[in-house]
Design goal:
Shape of chain A: globular
CATH class of chain A: Alpha Beta
Largest sheet of chain A: 5 strands, parallel
Oligomer: homodimer
Largest interface: A-B, 49 and 50 residues
Structural class of chain A: alpha/beta
CATH topology of chain A: Rossmann fold
Mean pLDDT of chain A: 79
Strand order of the largest sheet of chain A: 3-2-1-4-5
Number of domains of chain A: 1
CATH architecture of chain A: 3-Layer(aba) Sandwich
CATH superfamily of chain A: HUPs
Order of helices and strands of chain A: EHEHHEHEHHEH
Helix content of chain A: 40-55%
Low-confidence stretches of chain A: 1-9, 170-175
Number of helices of chain A: 7
Distance between the termini of chain A: 49 Å
Radius of gyration of chain A: 18 Å
């Protein structure tokens, strides 16, 4: 069967957007909302939009610390709380960007682990139709340790991957 | 200005799809047509769809030949004709996939050069809103020489890049 004979049906889709604390992922989400979820006549689709945030587990931070000292239970507990607060904050910000999508079912999902693996696993497990992400996920420092999350996912997942970069004009103040 | 304050307007877009003789790029085009250009109520957008085919210049073939012999003018002329025929064939096949897009302006563009550079240059020059491409562009052999076209472009171009992989079920007979 040739590709030209294949019929790609238009149906309700599952769109996975990987969000994080970086502004680039918020831009990627905005782009997806406006280009995949809102049609030209301003009606929205009946798709499911899944917002995924991956919390990097504590062990990564303790390794990054590099001193070999163990953190006290108090510090670990504060770090855990901080990490949860960040996740909630990112999800709230993300949801605000989706507030006009009346017919779209918006779901949120918070996972723990290496974002590269967690994003790919969620994409496969949920059988999503497209994965959307920014390029500079997880900040400058974390990126150096984790490698490029988006290029890893683009290589690994089976579904279409949309990589959205933030235009230079609006990121001029960042770098 | 934070990303959340940015307004991504819905307007007529320029969508660039890099097509080649591989079935994966035809699948990528189908996916783009159905997911970016046809809305849920089957109306199409007023976007411009640019189909780009890049002819790899003759010098690459003579290098691949590896014998060091020069081709005769006859053979070079046949190769040029063959290359043009392939380009036309790919464009016709691509146009057929777009036949139901009544309101979309479909343009075709044939360039010469290294696809990695040519695709990025066209994307920048035309100021496209999104670049769509398959992953296995330019076949198994050419890919080994040229490297992954899609990952190069995803890294280099400034606009969002949509990388569409062909589902395994429909490519089982190929590899």
């Amino acid at each position: 069967m040739s590709a030209a004979d294949e019929v790609v049906e238009v149906k309700a889709r599952k769109i996975l957007v990987a969000v994080d604390e970086g502004e680039e992922s918020m831009y990627a989400l905005s782009w997806a909302v406006n280009n995949l979820l809102v049609s030209s006549n301003n009606t929205t689709t009946k798709d499911t939009l899944i917002l995924l945030y991956v919390k990097i587990p504590r062990v990564v931070y303790t390794t990054l610390d590099g001193t070999g000292y163990l953190f006290s239970a108090d510090i670990l507990s504060s770090m855990e709380k901080y990490s949860n607060d960040v996740a909630q904050c990112v999800m709230e910000k993300s949801r605000r960007l989706c507030k006009d999508l009346q017919d779209v079912k918006v779901e949120t999902k918070i996972e723990n682990g290496d974002p590269r693996d967690a994003i790919c696993e969620v994409a496969e497990k949920l059988g999503v139709d497209v994965l959307v992400m920014g390029t500079h996920g997880y900040g400058m420092i974390k990126r150096a340790f984790l490698g490029s999350v988006s290029s890893h996912c683009a290589y690994k997942v089976k579904c279409p991957v949309l990589i959205v970069k933030r235009p230079k004009s609006s990121s001029a103040t960042r770098e």
